[in-house]
Amino acid sequence: MATKKIIADLNKGEKLTGTNYDIWHKKMTFLLNEQELYEYLTTITTRPPEGNTAQYRRDIEAFNTWSKKDRCARFTLLSCMHDDLIGTHEHCATAKDMWDQIGFDFGGTSVTRLRSLVLKFEMYKKDPKNSMTEHLRIMSAMIRDLKNAEVALSNQQQVQAGIRSLPDS
């Protein structure tokens, strides 16, 4: 029951969109560790060859247990990503395959991703619906994403961007 509440709470925040991979990755690592599912992101178990021995029955029981936990890890990953990304990743056979594919798709700092982060930061304007606290949280997250992509902004650049993002009125 606690697991479902944790996932529900996580889903209230940002899901994986592709541009927020770094923070999403950290959250998922914490969540899957808490659920004792993190090992399913790093290991794969294969189905034992058919047989009718006592060892086969133990092996198939262990495999079935592993498969069930792996499905839980896959479901958790899928439920914590934006709807348009689910179709791209639901085909992965294991949680490890999915984790690796997501990391490949969004983890590296490609030139395209870097441009996207810089453009988003430079073009960002405060939404009138957002409080100043929310606005500064969004700006801080963009600065953190740029820092994670190894784009260092001086304090002066950060302040100038903050001022530029405010409405004219």
Name the structural class. mainly alpha
pLDDT under 50 segments (min length 5)?
Answer: none
Q: Quick check: average pLDDT?
A: 85
Q: Give the number of domains.
A: 2
Order of helices and strands: HHHHHHHH
Q: Please give the share of residues in helix.
A: 55-70%
Write down the overall geometry: elongated
Q: Summarize the main sheet.
A: none
Strand content: under 5%
Characterize the structure shown.
By secondary structure, the chain is an all-alpha fold. It has two domains: 2-107, no CATH class; 111-164, no CATH class. It has helices at 2-12, 21-34, 54-79, 83-89, 95-107, 111-123, 132-148, 155-164. It is elongated, with a radius of gyration of 21 Å. The mean pLDDT is 85. Pfam families: Retrotran_gag_2. This is UBN2_3 domain-containing protein. It comes from Cephalotus follicularis (Albany pitcher plant).
Characteristics:
8 helices, mainly alpha, 169 residues, UBN2_3 domain-containing protein, 66% helix
Concise overview:
This is UBN2_3 domain-containing protein. Pfam families: Retrotran_gag_2. This protein is an all-alpha fold and 169 residues long.
Can you lay out the helices and strands and say which pair or pack?
Layout: H1 2-12, H2 21-34, H3 54-79, H4 83-89, H5 95-107, H6 111-123, H7 132-148, H8 155-164
